[in-house]
Design goal:
This protein is an all-alpha fold and about 400 residues long. About 75% of the residues lie in helices and about 0% in strands. The protein contains 22 helices and no strands. It has helices at about 5-40, 40-55, 60-70, 75-85, 95-105, 110-125, 130-145, 150-165, 170-185, 190-200, 205-215, 220-235, 240-255, 260-265, 275-285, 290-305, 310-320, 325-340, 345-350, 355-360, 370-380, 385-400. The termini are far apart.
Amino acid sequence: MSRRWPILLALTLAVGGAGAWWTVRSQVWTWQAERAMRAGRWNDAWDLSQKLLARDSEDGLAHMAMAGALSARGEFHVALTQLRLVAGDSSWASRAARREGEILLLLDRASEAETALRRCVDLCPRDSEDSIVSRILLVKIYRWLGRQFDAMSLLEYLYRDGETSGDVATRVASLVQMFLVEYGEHDPKARATMLRRFVANDPQYVAARVALAQQEFPNGDLGSALQELQLCLQASPQDVECRQYLLEYGLHVAGAEPRSLEPLLDGWPAERRGFQYYRLLGELRLRQERLDDAISAFRDANKIRPDQIGVRHQHGMALMRQGRETEANQELRRTEELRRALDYERVKRLFDGIPKHIEMGRVGSADAPMLRRLGSFYEEIGRRDLTQRWLREADRLKSGHR
């Protein structure tokens, strides 16, 4: 018995030593793989991912490294397979979701990209790079789709989240993106091309089908665009943009009987009754000669977006038809003031003055004057709620408070 003890002790130490060596070796590979990924050395990342996966087939970093190497070779579909092998409870889950969304968007699979990017936002801290990039891409998708309501709702949520957390970068980035959503514009041809790709990759993607039909109204086959919108509404009755475009077609193109358009307004989800709903309600009531109701609807629309020239003009004309000349003239004067304030070249200069680093969540005291200029712009167009936010953030940055 006494002879066996030295042997057993030697075996135990040998096994323990081998285990410790293997653990250290794996940690070194992990560290090397992370460095290779950051440096874009994808051949090294590929070799290291193979070693890590041989040790643990569920290693999240290894799947990320392999996906990065595959992406660098242009093998995006195989890279997606690797990214989807990263477990939901892995520390790499949010990065995998973001990268999945980026690749899907690169492949024009916007509906799947939206799902992946939303998953990333849910998984990671609000001030992380993954969260910031995912939110920017989501807003970009919504802008392509013409989903201003969704974009603004997301940005409003993020701004309030930044207020709760005291994160000035999140707040300022959200405000800048709000400005881009409301006053930015896309090249119509480029947007139509992008939307056709979205639909080609997912024929059931109602949001893209609706946006494409609306985009082709001015120059395309009106009958086919109308039929497409009607099919989309059947597939997704809650789609407010589809209702909006059908109402605009009926009011401005087809000259439809107002009564036939009522169901489109009645079915508008209550929680999404914003500016577009009240604008179209006012136009419909104006067509029906129900001036009191039209004026009330236009007033509600103006409360939400006091900077909309067309609605203010219609409101003024409706007041004039009622004989309320003083109020009408005030409204029409305000229309002309807004027309000057929203001059295209002026707004473009404001766009050009926004540093790119702000959108990426980096902000400093040197950005305060730019925030103040945008605050003054919002004050001039009557957006008091946003004016206060812009000026408050400018003052905080200038004084060093967060």
